[in-house]
Design goal:
about 150 residues; Glycosyltransferase; 5 helices
Length: about 150
């Protein structure tokens, strides 16, 4: 519980600094813009940690963390047009961990809530994240073969 509390405190402090910088300064360079996806990871990790501590079911804390995770996901949806205009770079690997951990947390929610069609939701989520990671890996191989991957 102490580690969870320290993690939440660190998340609040660091997220406020990062979000303040994103709001008050110039836009990040194109190669770094995909790194904004990292903002999805902290609430998903906190949610998984909370589920590990709290046992079965959901509670107010799980829903609060979930609400913030949804907010971060909505921000990512809003940034899709920005991401689509960018040239592929190593920064695109920033999508893999946050989205994979968000899917993992989503699978935990599905397990706990057991909604109708839970298996279909789980298959859809696993398929989507697998396709995303495979696409980034394939695009990396193509960029490496063309000598474009680490170009400034």
């Amino acid at each position: 519980m102490a580690s969870f509390g320290l993690g939440i405190a660190s998340w609040v402090l660091l997220s406020s600094v990062v979000l303040n910088r994103l709001i008050t300064t110039k836009r990040l360079p194109g190669a770094l813009q995909p790194t904004m996806a990292i903002e999805v990871a902290p609430p998903a990790l906190a949610g998984i940690a909370w589920f590990a501590l709290a046992g079965r079911g959901t509670n107010l804390i799980a829903y609060a963390i979930g609400g913030y995770a949804v907010l971060m996901a909505v921000v990512q949806v809003r940034l899709v047009p920005v991401y689509l205009k960018l040239r592929f770079s190593p920064g695109f690997w920033s999508f893999t961990f946050p989205y994979a951990i968000a899917v993992t947390w989503g699978l935990e929610w599905i397990t706990r809530a057991d909604p109708p069609g839970a298996t279909a939701y789980a298959i859809g989520a696993i398929t989507a994240i697998s396709i995303l990671i495979a696409a980034i890996a394939a695009r990396t191989v193509i960029a490496l073969a063309r000598g474009e991957f680490l170009r400034g």
